[in-house]
């Protein structure tokens, strides 16, 4: 009888992989999106800024997240979700909203 074969289980994608996938999906430069996430959170999806005001890879504030995430198709997601945060950031940059990250330069 043939030996049973264990299913292939891949590890979840890294924050960096999610950032580059979001950049490709929205037509923005991966290096640009990566640089922004490195500046904002050191690539930490669970990062919380001073005073608890900004959250996740791209340090979204609640008001900004509630405004932009639904437009990008992620209205029910959390800014701590690395995939959602990356997709929403890439969407925002693609749609001329790079000004939201003035602290890390112009995007």
Give the proportion of residues in helices: 40-55%
Mean pLDDT: 93
Overall structural class, as computed from helix and strand content, comes to mainly alpha
Q: List the strand order in the largest sheet.
A: 1-2
Which stretches are poorly predicted, pLDDT < 50 over at least 5 residues?
Answer: none
Biggest sheet layout: 2 strands, antiparallel
Apparent shape: elongated
Helix and strand succession?
HHEEHH
E-strand count: 2
Number of helices: 4
Rg of Cα set: 16 Å
Description of the structure:
With 107 residues, the chain is mainly alpha-helical. The chain contains 4 helices and 2 strands. A two-stranded antiparallel sheet has the order 1-2. Helix 1 packs across helix 2. The model has no long low-confidence stretch (mean pLDDT 93).
Q: What is the topological layout?
A:
Elements: H1 15-26, H2 30-41, E1 54-55, E2 60-61, H3 62-71, H4 82-94
Antiparallel strand pairs: 1-2
Helix pairs in contact: 1-2, 1-4, 3-4
Q: Can you summarize this structure?
A:
The protein has 107 residues and is mainly alpha-helical.
Keywords for this entry:
107 residues, mainly alpha, 4 helices
